[in-house]
């Protein structure tokens, strides 16, 4: 099996570095190897590589920047996935693509279902929805996994920001009126690998496709998540974490208040689910501790 991975330097894409290479040849691409804003380059690259699975983790994921760069955002989040889907269809390959809770307005009071009506509040959400819709009309065999509140031990994300800010702040103001299920990229990557293994052992045409929600189980506010992060960070000075309202924060894009996704369809279809958010957080904090202790023992660069 040959897998073409996009976004391999990103939060989620970089988690696939430990992908089992004994059963799959993995072609990892970042924006330097494959510019996904160039339609002709995508078509050429995919036709040369001839993958049987395409895992598309690349995205314009900065929600605030998207409000001012809607054309770049739509190129990466809407055009590129559709071209990948068309090329996957041509090769009879499976496309695994990631979407987001931001396709919803967040006005519900119970977890969103895949069948719920999308109504994005921001450019990023609109671009991801356009990507989903384009993939659906390409007739490709595609699995679209809607994620939410993802973070990892590396890169720029909520968890890393809280750990950084805690070092020099006595008080942090964190939104307490948004609710979601923080999900580690490691958990999403492991689930994706499991799906790829299931696909390789299944009859292609019988493998389930379509949109599925995939997040950690449980729920928490950003404020509660910040408190949990700090509680699991021994040795770190603990600033006061003050609950605040989203409107008070300086973000540019409108954000849905309620971001919980029901993962029941995924569980019923594939027979497994992601661990609760707190367990995932514990694993990521452990990974950060290991990274920090490796950095401490590593000889200084001269
Ligand atoms: N972040 C979240 O909270 C969140 C929530 C829900 C869903 N999602 C979805 O989850 C998926 C993974 O997100 P993530 O947080 O891992 O994203 P990320 O860390 O921002 O990584 C995105 C990657 O996209 C690549 N990229 C940017 N411009 C490109 C171009 N012109 N051509 C090719 N590649 C390009 C970048 O590659 P280089 O580094 O090589 O330039 C970057 O590494 C995305 O589909 C995202 O929409 C994210």
Provide structural commentary.
This protein is of the alpha/beta class. Helix content is 39%, strand content 17%. The chain is built from nine helices and twelve strands. It has helices at residues 39-49, 63-68, 70-91, 123-136, 158-168, 185-200, 222-231, 264-270, 277-297; strands spanning 2-6, 25-29, 53-56, 94-100, 141-147, 150-151, 171-175, 179-180, 183-184, 210-213, 220-221, 240-244. A six-stranded parallel sheet has the order 2-1-3-4-5-10, sandwiched between helices. It is globular. The chain starts with a strand and ends in a 5-residue tail after the last helix.
Write the layout of secondary structure elements.
Elements lengths: L1 E5 L18 E5 L9 H11 L3 E4 L6 H6 L1 H22 L2 E7 L22 H14 L4 E7 L2 E2 L6 H11 L2 E5 L3 E2 L2 E2 H16 L9 E4 L6 E2 H10 L8 E5 L19 H7 L6 H21 L5
Parallel strand pairs: 1-2, 1-3, 3-4, 4-5, 5-10, 6-9, 7-12
Antiparallel strand pairs: 8-11
Helix pairs in contact: 1-3, 3-4, 5-7
The structure holds NADP nicotinamide-adenine-dinucleotide phosphate.
The site of NADP nicotinamide-adenine-dinucleotide phosphate has 27 residues, from strand 4.
Short recap of the structure:
With 302 residues, the chain is of the alpha/beta class.
pLDDT averaged residue by residue: 94
Question: Within the largest sheet, what's the order of strands?
Answer: 2-1-3-4-5-10
Are any ligands bound, and if so which?
NADP nicotinamide-adenine-dinucleotide phosphate
Summarize the amount of helix as a percent range: 25-40%
Unreliable stretches covering 5 or more consecutive residues: none
Structural class: alpha/beta
C-alpha termini separation: 42 Å
How many strands in all? 12
Beta-strand percentage range: 15-25%
Taken from the alpha-carbon principal axes, the silhouette is: globular
Nearest-angstrom radius of gyration? 19 Å
Q: Sheet with the most strands?
A: 6 strands, parallel
String of helices and strands? EEHEHHEHEEHEEEHEEHEHH
Number of helices: 9
